[in-house]
Amino acid sequence: MDPIRPAGAALAPRTQILPHPPPAEVPPRAAAAPPMPNPTLRLDASLGMVVMEFRNGSEQVARSLPSEVELKAYRLAQRIGLEAEAAKPIRR
């Protein structure tokens, strides 16, 4: 029950203390992918050759051994060799 107040007295505002809302759930952070080893090795199956690739900070191939030009030369030599082999007459 409210106490009796004199006429014309202002009502004091009532404040309601609310508990803090629970914190928003933060989704679990995905485990950061381990950094890619530098250099990496990959097998060029068409040439039967292992290629060593050195990557820059943005994970792009900066350099490779053998170089891209050398790999193209190997592919061209392989194709020429296969074409020459196919052009040989069959000996019986």
Q: What tags apply to this protein structure?
A:
92 residues, alpha+beta, three-stranded antiparallel beta sheet, 1 helix, 3 strands, 18% strand, rod-shaped
Report the structural category: alpha+beta
Mean pLDDT: 82
Beta percentage is 15-25%
- SSE sequence, one letter per element: EEEH
C-alpha termini separation = 119 Å
Biggest β-sheet: count, sense, barrel? 3 strands, antiparallel
Gross morphology is rod-shaped
Poorly predicted tracts of residues:
none
Radius of gyration: 38 Å
Number of helices: 1
The helix fraction, in percent, is 10-25%
Within the largest sheet, what's the order of strands? 1-2-3
Report the count of strand segments: 3
Report on the architecture of this protein:
- This protein has a domain at 40-87.
- It is 22% helix and 18% strand.
- The protein has one helix and three strands, in the order βββα.
- The chain has one helix at 68-87, and strands at 40-44, 49-55, 61-65.
- The relative contact order is 0.09.
In short:
The protein is built from 1 helix and 3 strands.
Write the layout of secondary structure elements.
Elements: E1 40-44, E2 49-55, E3 61-65, H1 68-87
Antiparallel strand pairs: 1-2, 2-3
